[in-house]
Amino acid sequence: MVQQQALRDFTQAMTNFFGGTHGRPSWRKAGRDEAFRIVAMKPGHVHRLSRKTGEVWVPKVGWMRFRWSRSVPERIKSYRVNRDRAGRWHIAFAIRPQPIPASGRGAVVGIDRGVVVSAALSTGEMLTAPRPVHGRQRRLRHLQRRLARAERNSNRRARLKLAIARLKAHDTDTRKDWAEKVSTNIARRFDIIRVEDLRIGAMTRSARGTIAEPGRNVRAKTGLNRSIQASAWGLLVRRLEDKAPGRVEKVRPAYTSQRCSACGHIAAESRENQALFRCVACGYACNADINAARNIAAGHAVTARGGLRNAGPMNREPQLLAP
Q: Catalytic residues, which ones?
């Protein structure tokens, strides 16, 4: 059954690739893509044993217990079992979750994403994704140096890779937990959620260059890429789109950090530093990230000449609520 389903998944992946909607399927790699999928489940093949324990029927294996971390609805037809790089096994039941209902108050919020502050809301809230503590970073660097000296295909190298994967898995789980809680809170409180339309893939592209044309400031760019990825920019917006479908709008980020949210004057000199915005025209001062978030909440698509482009319904003035 597992091999048949793997062939069906491969056929579907190749069909999507030739159809132009997806990329070419990658090769499976031992230790990274350890997973299988079971479809056509029968009623009664999953049930709860206790408050924290459940049981599922795996064909050719039998009953397998798993940690009951959230409610499992009835009429489940398929599930997937996978093993991550940290050696942990997970089971995921395929369901279509219901979207989070809007507040119904017509509230609009803008979200400015940054490196120092992961997400600044137009209401004045400043949210920061959890970062790895110094001790864990030091431990990770130590393990990576030992891994570089380990012999390939040795047991020592395998143990070091597993230790590194467990450290990184802890940081990833913490970041995902933060994104889930923040996205749920925002989806419940606001009806319209506006974010910057950022090309994160292009922003985090390596600056190493080639042998003929080597890059410049490669170490600084590498540190910036790590900070962007640790801020969970893409994960936060993706979860917002999943939980609030049709209520997430993307705004062009051009000049949103240079425009005064009070008078609309655009000047690069108004951004005094990373944290302070002081308008050179009207003297309005506030946090630079919050000022940009209020411009995003207003839906202003600013052109290079400083004019406002007609963005249709996105030009509605936001109803700012207290946190």
A: 112, 196, 289
